[in-house]
Design brief:
The protein has 195 residues and is α+β, with helices and mostly antiparallel strands. It has a domain of 122 residues. The chain contains four helices and nine strands.
Length: 195
């Protein structure tokens, strides 16, 4: 019975990961075949490879481990009282949100304009705020700003880069999205990508 529950749980996790990965694909998949589903299966069956092949959103979704859920409430955009601080992440001082979750920039964005919406924003939730964001220790207040997204949400920016979380970061301090697709990167105190 326990073995059946374990298999059922793993199947549910695999299905969730496949849906999130497929959601980050572009419309070209409809013409050239469903590469998102194949990529999801590859990412889930190969624990050494944690990123999916490049898609319309730069690699989309890193496969979660079998012990962690694909998303958590903490990875959802936080409203109000958003502080951007610095923490030691993956050996570098990088930006984090109020809860200590890694913050990323998307190199496909142009200054002050987010290129990540719809399915992309489900895998890479924007860091949103009500009012103005607050700078934590080591963060330059002058570099903090906001933009208004197409859906009306106010997204935090740093050095002109819109900021995002990663849905597969299920605990503070994780950096599962670092380098995803060659376009998603942690952000340093100067507001530049950590590559």
């Amino acid at each position: 019975m326990a073995q059946l529950r374990t298999r059922t749980g793993l199947f549910a996790l695999a299905a969730t990961a496949a849906l999130l990965l497929a959601a980050c694909g572009d419309d070209d998949d409809a013409v050239s075949g469903d590469t998102g589903t194949t990529a999801a299966a590859t990412a889930i069956t190969s624990s050494a490879d944690t990123t999916a092949p490049s898609d319309g959103y730069g690699g989309g979704y890193a496969a979660p481990s079998a012990t962690a859920p694909a998303t958590t409430a903490a990875a959802a955009p936080a409203a109000g009282g958003t502080t951007v601080g610095l923490a030691d992440l993956a050996g570098s001082e990088a930006l984090v949100n109020s809860e200590g979750f890694a913050v990323y920039l998307f190199t496909n964005d142009s200054e002050g304009v987010s290129a990540c919406s719809a399915a992309c924003a489900e895998a890479w939730p924007p860091v949103v705020v009500e009012g103005e964001p607050t700078a934590g220790d080591g963060v330059d207040t002058a570099k903090l700003g906001t933009i208004t997204r197409d859906d009306g949400a106010v997204q935090v920016t740093y050095n002109g880069h819109p900021l995002y979380l990663f849905a597969a970061d299920t605990a503070a301090g994780q950096t599962n999205g670092q380098g995803s697709g060659g376009v998603w990167f942690l952000v340093d105190a100067a507001g530049e990508a950590i590559e």
